[in-house]
Amino acid sequence: MDSKNKVILLEFNELCPPLLEKFMAQGELPNFSKLYANAAVHTTDANCDVEYLEPWIQWVTLHTGLPFEQHKVFRLGQAQNLNHESIWDVLSAHGKASWLCGSMNTKWQPGDNNITALPDPWSIDVEASPGELQEFYRFVRANVQEHTNDNFTLSIGDYMSFLVFMLRHGLSFSSIKRITSAVWKQAIKSDDRWKKATLLDWLQFDVFRHVYKRKQPAFATYFSNSTAHFQHKFWRYMEPERFPMKSSEEDIQRYGDAILYAYKNHDALIGKVFDMADDDTTIILSSALSQQPYTAKDEDGGRRFYRPHDMNKLPEWFGLTGVEKVGPVMSHQFHLLCDSPEAAQSNFERLKQFTFQDSPLFSLRLEGKDVFGGCTVSHEVDMNTPLTIDGKQVTFGELFYLADNIKSGMHHPHGVFWAYRPKRANTIASTPIPLESTMGMILNEFGISR
Question: What is the pTM of this model?
Answer without folding.
Answer: 0.90
